[in-house]
Amino acid sequence: MKLVRLLLGASLASMAGLAHASSVEGPVPDHVELNPVAIGMFLVFVLVTLGITRWASRRTRTTKDFYSAGGGISGLQNGLAIAGDYMSAASFLGLSGMVFVFGFDGLIYSIGFLVGWPFVMFLLAEPLRNLGKYTFVDVVAYRFEQAPIRLLTASTSLVVVCFYLVVQMVGAGKLIQLLFGLPYWMAEVIVGALMVIYVFFGGMTATTWVQIIKAVLLLCGATFMAVTALAQFGFSPEEMFRRAVDVHPGALSIMGPGKLLKDPLNALSLGIALMFGTAGFPHILMRFFTVPSAKEARKSVFVATGLIGYFYLLTFIIGFSAIALLAQHPEFFKSAVGGHFNLTRDLLGGSNMVAVKLAQAVGGNLFYGFIAAVTFATILAVVAGLTLSGATTVSHDLYACWLARGKVNEAHEMRISRVATLILSIVAIGLGILFEHINVAFLVGLVAAVAASANFPVLVSSIFWRGMTTRGAVVGGSLGLICAVLLTLFSKSVWVDVLHQARPLVFLDNPALVSVPLAFAGIWVVSMLDRGARAQRERDAFVLQEFYGQTGILSVKAVDH
């Protein structure tokens, strides 16, 4: 625990230096006022979670403890943790901000993610829990040739984790720079140091409880904000909408679709990415291995679905009430509403932090400090979960199961996990600093597209289609990954907005409309053409896999290769 105390001391010293950080590193923007309440609440959260990490470290002795909390998380606890994974700072600030800017159209992200849950609940939760061990890669590799399958799925998982970490780390830096007055690089280092502590010492147990605490705090804070905001309109949604229409530059158009996504094909493509990407996020799927049974896995999905749906409803109320209160509190909303929406610049790096500003408008400085601290806590929790997912992929899927072919000492595998945690954290900090001035909003869509195009088709086909073979999975998953990355590169989000070319090479802003069907087609065509002896053994093994997936009677055991 010496490292814990050392990093804690560094974090405390950094936070204590807030009062004079601006004089050392440059001026704090004039719209930033250092908030002692936010700083104090943030320090309390850090101290509590570090205490949990110390407790969890005493219970983390084996790889099962590190990767899946020993399978001892209840369905209710896991549901809260899954909901915590979804309730990131991008969701809280981003969704309410999109409603603030675009009105009704801002709901497309929340609806897309929520609609994706039935795929997880009805199709994947029980087979995942019964067939897998620590990651969804275990499930995909159950009856196939280990090396190519694990290399493909582990690679796509690391792509998702790394890109998502960049989004969260840039968001963390901008948020702390705006709210607390810290230099950007210092915020990146603090977030990186804390996520190392959570994962390195506490593993899945600490990460889960950090998510639970954050989820409860954020739900309570968002509920209080929505209720107090609605109280301004006599608890009448109709009055809130009427006044929002009166003051918004878009007037009545904010109550209908078409402001954010005018092209139906782009809307459909984004919807596909959000829906199927949900069932392909590795850091979400690995949480189903933390519960003791398939029954608890189903319970956790029900709990998470209810909490996530409720949270998205709150962001809808927060966004519209912020519009309606614009005329009453103009000092809190100085930035323009119109123009092109940019997640990082407008919500995490500018003055248009709608949810946080609304907290100050309806709850005063104390509530503003609470929401500011909780918003930063959401980033800490999410990056910890992503880091653990990436470390597990490296140590378990790539090293233990592929390179060492299962013949590895458990203590050595734990060391590999912790080394991977340190390396991922250093990479995340470096990329966060490197991407400080780059619009990373396109990475949000790319993460969902890669998960939907590369992970979801391979995972769902391996569970439910007898005919899939190793070659089909590798070709289909690779096509989905390559297509998603290339189409994103040639889209307006990157080709024009980042690379500053004259016009995009493709008309789709999100590639899922092309990449997801292409992945399924590649799996089907190549598998149907694969008539070798190896392919026939893989098809015959489906009966055994189906039995284990439905009953969970026997522990997971890959087919002998």
UniProtKB/TrEMBL annotation:
GO CC annotations on file: plasma membrane
Asked whether the UniProt record includes Transmembrane helix among its keywords, one would answer yes
Q: Which GO terms describe its biological process?
A: plasma membrane acetate transport; sodium ion transport
Transmembrane spans: 37-57, 78-101, 107-128, 149-170, 182-203, 215-235, 267-289, 301-327, 366-395, 416-435, 441-465, 472-491, 511-529
- A molecular function (GO) term: acetate transmembrane transporter activity
Ordered alphabetically, the record's keywords are: Cell inner membrane, Cell membrane, Ion transport, Membrane, Signal, Sodium, Sodium transport, Symport, Transmembrane, Transmembrane helix, Transport
Signal sequence extent: 1-21
Entry membrane topology: Multi-pass membrane protein
Q: What protein name does the entry list? A: Cation/acetate symporter ActP
